[in-house]
Amino acid sequence: MAWENELNDRKKNILKSIIDVYIQSAQPVGSRTIARKHDLGLGSATIRNEMADLEELGYITQPHTSAGRVPSDKGYRFYVDHLMQAYQLAQEEILQIRQAMEDRVEELNQLFKKACSIISSFTGYPTIVMSPQLSGTLIKSVQVVAIDDKHLLVVLVVEGGIVRNKMVRHNEMVDEGSLVRLTNVLNTRLAGKKLCNATVPLAADLTIVTHLPETLLTLVLDAVQECIRRIENIDVYLDGVTNLLNFPEFSDLLKAREVLELLHGQDVINTLVKRALNERKLQVRIGSENEIDPLKELSVVTTVYGHEGRSTGAISIIGPTRMTYGKVVSSILYIKELIDKEIMRIFDEEE
Amino acid sequence: MAWENELNDRKKNILKSIIDVYIQSAQPVGSRTIARKHDLGLGSATIRNEMADLEELGYITQPHTSAGRVPSDKGYRFYVDHLMQAYQLAQEEILQIRQAMEDRVEELNQLFKKACSIISSFTGYPTIVMSPQLSGTLIKSVQVVAIDDKHLLVVLVVEGGIVRNKMVRHNEMVDEGSLVRLTNVLNTRLAGKKLCNATVPLAADLTIVTHLPETLLTLVLDAVQECIRRIENIDVYLDGVTNLLNFPEFSDLLKAREVLELLHGQDVINTLVKRALNERKLQVRIGSENEIDPLKELSVVTTVYGHEGRSTGAISIIGPTRMTYGKVVSSILYIKELIDKEIMRIFDEEE
DNA sequence: TGTTAGCACTCTCCACTGTTGAGTGCTAAC
DNA sequence: GTTAGCACTCAACAGTGGAGAGTGCTAACA
Predict the structure, then answer these.
(1) A132 pLDDT more than 60
(2) How crowded is residue A246: how many other Cβ atoms within 10 Å of its Cβ?
(3) Which residues form the Winged helix-turn-helix transcription repressor HrcA DNA-binding domain (chains A, B) (predicted)?
């Protein structure tokens, strides 16, 4: 893009300094502050001139005539793309995250819940972790088990050891043999299929093979369908929302409430998931780059985890545009790695 | 108690009026307001005198000399115990709640989640619903199912059709017969036992009966134990927290944050559950009657649902002490009824 | 030609002030 | 026992002025 070169090195340095300071202080940054704190070898007057230029170019703005400067969305964008230092996670921090994640996770869902809470407490921003979209995953097995003479339990297992079940209540006589036949038929029809391609057979088609009444078969098949639905369902974990109230940009209660409500609702998730899963790489959406209205004053950092195609989900960190991009990006990527490894481990254990 | 008679009818009426108005307005209530709005047939001066008495007795307080009066915790307590009108849910409102609850709930957990969201949106206060404590519930059945030649699935079913499962990965040869024997042994040992009394047998004791290697048995038995743990685990549903930000008493961001964090944490739940399950009837804890510090400026209305002994849980509604007690109490009781019926239905279906 | 010191200017923030209005307590009259 | 009337109190609000932070511009300097 043309405007990538409109800044000389000095301007870039000044812009970086302004943003670095502003991220810390949340206060408009004056020329004196930059001149003193950062050894650019320049006087405040010079910096004032440069700042005037930067403002004209749209990288920073002035809340009012005699205030310092505040970065604009364009400023942050440039900062994220060209200026920001990669934040090197300290050994100690890596250890901290690792340790928190290391308690053996019994279930995949616990993994996401935990990851969510760790990121949010580590970065200090609200975090959303979405459980993977499993439509592309293969069905491993369907089991129909008799619990007592009035209840059958339908169990669906897919790759990765993910299990859903549903109880079926009935009034028929069911012998062990029929159940085995039913389980076998279901497995021939469904096992190895992708969840999204799996079509549950018609009850009528199974009466002969299984020697079971159609009413019962319907119940069971509905239960299978329900298990598929449940397993395809995306869970959402949300943690650290109250952190938002720490930031001065949310001293306006009305705004705070609006955003908190948004985060608890379903809309964000839909939008975020859709977008995230399209572009697979790390994304940083700054302020007005976000589509949803209340997010237009926030930034959202999102990445996708998991195996392409079979089980991908998304992690998003949400904060004021003045967020510590460096640290956030490093943490999210590091956690993504850990999750990927864990998923790999769970899936590989299957072989 | 002695002080129940220290108020004559006129004082009671005035106190009731003050609280009714204050609940609506959140503003200190003056004598003129009461004199005009409520046809007590009294002038403002008279009311002033009575208010002075009420203040001396501790039912109301004055934020500062020339302000109106604000109810004290003692005032609210008297209001709840003696003055409050039972709020009659309108036919329309009943319909509204009924309809929302009526979508067939597939799983017990969905029932609680739904109930939680309904109450909070109906009353406008944050609501906590705790899934039942199931320690007293009877184990119906344990199943060990082969998923493939390296995985077994352990399934635990208790009364009410509640199911938990855990996958076990192993490297042994397992024939169908051994599995049946294992399942049988486990059922003899565990079925019919209360969850809290269930003691998983030792692996060593089962090697002979089942013809299975001890290592495998250990894995399976651990899985059974884990299923028990999971089923005893109490889930917590929380909804409508952001509503708190609507109330002027939370314009102080620091306080708001403190309470929001408290609600998201585990502590409240522990305390609330313990207390709720002890006293079984409806409880209203007003302000300082609460034990947890940040709740001392809030009121908590709690009730217990479910069958005594086998599956009881709690519902709590949290709001400013200035909450609409009448409506809240009616709604919580109504929802409790609905949940009780639903639980009854699910448990009875078993017979 | 680029840099900087100096200065006048602007604007927010804060503390102070006086005014308004709501509400009280007390007293005296009904 | 009730109430009208009055003096008093206090929060809330708007206006005022100084302090401080920061700017833009200009002129001098390297």
Answers:
(1) yes
(2) 14
(3) 7-77
Answer whether B161 sits within 8 Å of A151, measured CB to CB: yes
Instruction: State pTM to two decimals.
Output: 0.90
Q: Give the nucleotide with minimal C1' distance to the Cα of B64.
A: D10
Asked if A123 and A239 count as a contact pair (C-beta separation under 8 A), the reply is no
The tokens for B62 are 């004055």
Answer yes or no: are the C-beta atoms of A118 and A101 closer than 8 Å: yes
CATH 1.10.150.530 fits B139-232, yes or no: no
Pair A291, A302: CB distance under 8 Å: no
- Own/partner contacts of B220-223, CB < 8 Å, gap of 24 or more, are B220/B144, B220/B152, B220/B154, B220/B168, B220/B182, B223/B154, B223/B166, B223/B167, B223/B168
Partner residue facing B261 (CB), from A165, A167, A242: A242
Q: What is the mean pLDDT of residues B153-157?
A: 95
Q: What share of chain B is helix, strand, coil (3-state, %, to 5)?
A: 55, 20, 25
B103: exposed, middle or buried (Cβ count in 10 Å: 0-12, 13-18, 19+): exposed
Domain boundaries, chain A: 9-83, 91-133+234-350, 139-232
Chain B: give the shortest CA distance to residue A19, in Å.
26
With CA atoms as reference, the chain B residue closest to A168 would be B161
Instruction: Name which CATH class applies to B9-83.
Output: mainly alpha
Instruction: Classify each residue of B191-201 as buried b or exposed e, where b means 16 or more C-beta atoms within 10 Å of its C-beta.
Output: beebbeebebb
Closest residue on chain A to B107 (Cα): A166
pLDDT in tens, B172-212: 888 888 899 999 999 999 999 999 999 998 988 888 888 88
Check pLDDT > 90 for residue B74.
yes
Residue A29 is encoded by which pair of tokens?
């940054």
- State how far the Cα of A21 lies from the Cα of A38, in Å rounded to an integer: 10
